[in-house]
Structure formats: C-alpha cells, structure tokens
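name: query_chain
kind: protein
chains: 1
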Amino acid sequence: PSTHLERLISALEEVRVSAGAAVVREGEIGDAFYVIRAGAATVSKEEEGRDVPLAQLRVGDSFGEDALLTGALRNATVAMRDAGVLM
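structure:
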C-alpha cells in the first residue's frame, strides 16, 4: 500500500560517498541496503587474491539486499567510481 511506501521513503537517509570509497566489503555483515541517487559504482569479488569487476551500477540501481534478506555475509564489494549520493 502507498502508506507503507511513504513510511519507507521517509526512513531513508542520504549518504554522501567519495570516489574510490568502498561502501560495502565482501565478507562483512550486512546492515544496510542502498540505492544510488548520484554517481556510479563498481561491484567486484575477490578471486585468487585480486578484485575481479562483476558489474557497474548507476543512478537508480540498488545493492546490499542479499545480506539483509538472508543473514549471509556480503557476497561482493561495492566501491564508488565517482563521488556520489546513496539513499
């Protein structure tokens, strides 16, 4: 219902992130879900001691839900390519 959506939107917090900053790291406990409001990010996973890029995220994309929904550790690292704003 729209009342639930309104409550969800009112609970969002704006987070400003600098270019190169890791927002979530593979193996960490998940405590937040993010939507990109401005900027771009790269999703990567460690394989054989190096970070392998998996995806590029842009405005409107989201990440971090898996760890929240399943209780598992973060399955990838998401780092900002550009300075940005997350919700």
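note: The beta strands are 15-17, 22-24, 34-38, 41-47, 50-57, 62-63, 77-80, 84-86.
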